[in-house]
Amino acid sequence: MSLDGHKKTLGQANDEIVSALMGLDDNVRQTAIIAACAAVGVDTPIAKARESNSETEKETSSTSESNLSDIRTLTTQKSPKSAIEMACVVAYYLRHVVPESERKSEIGFADIEPYFTQAGFPLPKAPRQVLVDSKAAGYFDTTGRGAYKLNPVGHNLVAHTLPRAASATSVGRKGAKKNKATRRPRKIRKK
To answer: Which among 34, 49, 125, 155 is least surrounded, fewest beta carbons within 10 Å?
Structure first.
């Protein structure tokens, strides 16, 4: 039955459904179909396939994290380019990768040197400053004196951005000053 109380034919219902779906973006059509079917109690192959894919993704995710048994492996995979990025990798490692009993949501200055060393990453000149700089860069929040927690920005950096594409790390020289040897000499005006 329609919302106005009149019974629709199969053709009319189909036309309305197709019309409504055509008005949506491609990436949300399946979601709309699944939601509509769930609302009327119809099981769909699409929903079953999504559930199966979701379970497979969870298994793959947990398997890939369990394969990252040490900080060196994670560091090699993520290829941090700075001490700030490495601090984020350390925090992510301690929050999501180490065995459950060893996990911690905060890191402090004392975590920098041992984990940088284990990862084979160069120690910063001022290890105590790395977390302060990482917070200033927007990757950490402070949770107490000397304690820092990776925030969503830092998490996304490690989980989704690193390793950066080669083109994203190379900085162009557009606008850089020309070498003195290649500059045209200035004309001197006579008065």
So the answer is: 125
Instruction: Give pairs for 128-133: CB < 8 Å, separation 24+.
Output: 130/83, 130/84, 130/86, 130/87, 131/87, 131/107, 133/83, 133/84
Q: What is the pLDDT of residue 172?
A: 43
- Alpha-carbon span 98 to 103, nearest angstrom: 6
Domain ranges in the chain are: 10-61, 68-165
Multiple choice CATH, 68-165, 1.10.10, 3.40.630, 3.40.1130, 2.60.40? 1.10.10
Q: How many CA atoms lie within 13 A of 71 on its CB side?
A: 22
Using alpha carbons, list the distances in angstroms from residue 145 to 19, 40, 77, 126, 131: 58, 54, 31, 18, 12
Residue 165 backbone zone (phi > 0: left; psi -120 to 50: alpha; other: beta): beta
User: What pLDDT, on a 0 to 100 scale, did the predictor assign at position 176?
Assistant: 45
- What pTM does this model have? 0.55
pLDDT along the chain (191 residues), means of 10: 70 79 75 74 63 52 55 96 97 95 95 96 94 96 95 96 70 46 62 65
